[in-house]
Structure formats: structure tokens, C-alpha cells
Design a protein that fits this description.
Elements lengths: L1 H9 L16 H15 L14 E4 L5 E4 L5 E3 L2 H12 L6 E2 L12 E3 L6 H5 L5 E5 L5 H9 L4 E4 L8 H11 L3 H20 L9 E8 L4 E5 L6 H6 L3 E2 H4 L6 E3 L2 H7 L3 E5 H6 L2 H5 L9 H5 L2 E4 L11 H12 L9
Parallel strand pairs: 3-6, 4-5, 6-7, 8-10, 8-12, 12-13
Antiparallel strand pairs: 1-2, 8-9, 9-11
Helix pairs in contact: 2-14, 3-6, 6-7, 7-14
Length: 336
């Protein structure tokens, strides 16, 4: 559910501006922006990519058997799936991208989908031999039209937490006929995540972090709960998901002064463009209730690029590293 909500709301962010007073206005913000850029700009392909061994038959997450006979023209319908294909070393076979594929190697590809606004005609015009989709990709009619045209469509299970990194990589690798590369990339990703976790500073108390989904241009102000997708990342960073811990069981709930007071976050996690959309930290603390939280009073914000934060893919170690670096910027590991 969280993926569906974020994908739908993300359509409002294209061209989002309003950077006045952003987190880049402080020394911590400058370091944060640099860390975000490093995490968001590029993917790192495997050093020795494998040549696909096809045909293969794999099971789609929607229960269908999918036979892939060729993988010369691949269309991933999400930024997360594009990231996996490129990191497996097969990016030269990708012929289009979803608007959420923001990394450098994909930026010259034509944008033909917006995840929840897939145009079957645009996809079919590219003559793909394989389409990769998420369980949240839609509308269903468009996916049906692509399949009816004889194009294999593999639906990949959702990205919800750190445990999904390996299975998602392997599912894509198996469909592309490079299962060994999938195992290699999974191990690399999991090893790097483990290495980041080992470097988390010792602390006397876990910081409480609330994940806020902000889209000022659309007047969307939400606080994440247990199903937001951020809980696993925050826990891996040695923090407590303040929204989930305060009893918010849904993916997102409208921000209220009461909800923020109950969550009582020491820091706030946001997507970079979401923070910009409300006018940076100055604008964020103007949201009712934020200024009264420990995070608002300390202006303690952790921001990560929209296109990578909740992907749970090959760059998750970089996301986690950025969160840890910002959260423990004072080097102590203790909450303010």
C-alpha cells in the first residue's frame, strides 16, 4: 500500500521548486546535499556483467508464468527496477524509463511512464521484448494491453523493507537470464548494508525519527506509520520510527498537531523535493505542530533524494549511510 500511495503522490512533484530556506542553507545542510548527490546521481554496475542466457520461464508475482525469449529491449516501469537492471550491467538494453528513474545513466532515456499512469501505446511503440512492472504499476488495463500484444510482462514483488533487497534483485536477474549476477549483486548489496550498520555510533538512547511525506504544491502533508516503507531503514540506522511507535498502523496519516506530539520525533526524515516543496526547513517548521516537536525546535532534518529513498535495491547501503551520517552528524550518537 505504501508504494501505491507514494507512486501516486509522486506525480505531483515533477518540476517542484521552492528552495528558499532549504537545508542547504546550513553547514549540515551542505554536507547533507553532498551526501544525497553522491547517493542519488549514479548506480554502480557489476564489474563483469553476464550475458543473458535465454529463454527462461519465471513466475510473476501476480501468479502468471512468464517466458522471456529475448532481453534486447527492456522497459522497466519504475525507477527501482531500472536501477536493478542497470546495476546488473544490462543498462544498455533499457530503451525507456519511468519518471522516477533519476540516476545519471538513465537520464537521457525517454520518459514513457509515470508508474501509475502507464500508457500502453507509448510502451508498445518501443517494441520491447520484456517489460518489468511493480505490483503497484497500473492501470491494470494498460498492463493487460501490453500482455495482449504478446509482450512478456514480469511483475516484481513490492519493496517494503531491507529483507526485500535480495529477492527483488534475484527476481529481475532470473528473468534476464543472469541468475549468477543476481547472486553476486545480492551479496554485494547485503555486505555493504552490513558494513554501514557496523559503523553506527554507540548511543545511550535511540533517536526517534518521523518520516514526513510533504508535497507543498499539492497541500499534501502526511506522517508515515508502520506501513510507510521507512520503518526498516530507520531501525537499521539505529533509530525508532516515531510514527509507527506512536501507534500509527497505516502507511500514512494526515499530519496533525496531536499526531506529531504523540510521535515526539528527535529528527524528521523527508524526501529532498518534498522539503523543497514546502520552502525548506523554514517552511517545514511552519507546518502546524512541527515547531513544537524536539526535531522542530532543533531544526533536525534528514533528507534523502526522492528517487532512491525507498527503492530497497542496490543503492540501499548508500541511502542508509546518508541517513546515519545526517542523523549522527554531531558524532555522539546521543539524541539532543
Amino acid at each position: 500500500m505504501a508504494g501505491a500511495v507514494l507512486s501516486a503522490l509522486a506525480l505531483t512533484v515533477t518540476g517542484c521548486a521552492g528552495t528558499q530556506g532549504t537545508s542547504r542553507d546550513t553547514p549540515q545542510g551542505t554536507a547533507r546535499a553532498a551526501a544525497n548527490a553522491a547517493a542519488a546521481d549514479r548506480v554502480e554496475p557489476l564489474a563483469n556483467p553476464s550475458e543473458p542466457q535465454l529463454p527462461v520461464t519465471v513466475r510473476s508475482s501476480d501468479g502468471m508464468e512468464v517466458t522471456v525469449e529475448a532481453a534486447e529491449r527492456i522497459v522497466p516501469l519504475s525507477g527501482s527496477l531500472s536501477e536493478i537492471v542497470f546495476t546488473l550491467g544490462l543498462g544498455d538494453r533499457v530503451v525507456a524509463r519511468d519518471i522516477t528513474a533519476t540516476f545519471t545513466q538513465a537520464e537521457e532515456l525517454p520518459v514513457v511512464t509515470r508508474n501509475h499512469d502507464v500508457s500502453a501505446e507509448s510502451v508498445l511503440s518501443l517494441r520491447p521484448d520484456l517489460v518489468l512492472a511493480e505490483t503497484t504499476t497500473g492501470p491494470e488495463e494498460a498492463i493487460g494491453q501490453i500482455r495482449d500484444a504478446g509482450i512478456p510482462v514480469l511483475v516484481i514483488g513490492p519493496a517494503k523493507d531491507l529483507g526485500d533487497v535480495g529477492p527483488r534483485i534475484q527476481a529481475v536477474a532470473d528473468a534476464l537470464g543472469v541468475p549468477a549476477a543476481g547472486k553476486e549483486l545480492t551479496k554485494r548489496s547485503e555486505d555493504r548494508i552490513a558494513a554501514v550498520r557496523k559503523e553506527i555510533p554507540e548511543r545511550t538512547e535511540q533517536p526517534r525519527v518521523a518520516f514526513l511525506y510533504l508535497r507543498g504544491s499539492a497541500s499534501v502533508y502526511l506522517i508515515g506509520g508502520r506501513d510507510s516503507g521507512a520503518t526498516s531503514l530507520l531501525e537499521a540506522a539505529g533509530a525508532v520510527d516515531a510514527g509507527a511507535d506512536s501507534g500509527l498502523s497505516k502507511d500514512f496519516t494526515a499530519i496533525t498537531t496531536e499526531a506529531l506530539a504523540q510521535a515526539a520525533p528527535d529528527a524528521i526524515l523527508v524526501m529532498t523535493k518534498g522539503l523543497e516543496s514546502v520552502g525548506g526547513i523554514d517552511g517545514m517548521v511552519g507546518i502546524p505542530g512541527v515547531a513544537q516537536t524536539p526535531a522542530g525546535m532543533e531544526r533536525r532534518v534528514v533528507s534523502v533524494e526522492d528517487g532512491v529513498l525507498l527503492n530497497y535495491g542496490p543503492r540501499t547501503d548508500q541511502v542508509l549511510k546518508s541517513i546515519v551520517a545526517q542523523l549522527y552528524a554531531d558524532g555522539s550518537g546521543d539524541t539532543p
